[in-house]
Amino acid sequence: xxxxxxxxxxxxxxxxxxxxxxxxxxxxxxxxxxxxxxxxxxxxxxxxxxxxxxxxxxxxxxxxxxxxxxxxxxxxxxxxxxxxxxxxxxxxxxxxxxxxxxxxxxxxxxxxxxxxxxxxxxxxxxxxxxxxxxxxxxxxxxxxxxxxxxxxxxxxxxxxxxxxxxxxxxxxxxxxxxxxxxxxxx
Length: 186
Fold this sequence. Notes:
Elements: H1 2-18, E1 24-27, E2 44-45, E3 53-56, E4 66-70, E5 72-77, E6 82-91, E7 101-107, E8 110-117, E9 126-129, E10 138-142, E11 148-157, H2 164-185
């Protein structure tokens, strides 16, 4: 009986480890300046294409010392698709007639989700959820008339599917242990 219990515990450990999610990444721009912001920072490429810079928050609106400021552009996730959670965001458009700010999410060059936010400045960074839980490999941010500031851009690596071989191995191992036990008893 003890042998079967150990086998069951081993199979449960293997299966639970295979379903574990990757850690969340938060890109916070702390400890860098615009000169240190290179493609690949935070696992993303395209920073220079947005036309932005990293600097101290204006009026203390940041969550830390630095905020990324930009106008519009595309960011690509370097290490494969991710689940994009969102970012703290502030628009810098003061005209109610200015265009909306949009956050467009893409996977394999297909638009999978788009969210529009009115571009009026609130004077503070607010959390804007992506509103989408599927895979994303690039995001496009259009900042409206005056641009935007972001901080704590947050994403998680895509969960890795459990290969069928792991399930097959676990069930085969359990079957062998059960057979061995029956052989010893009989």
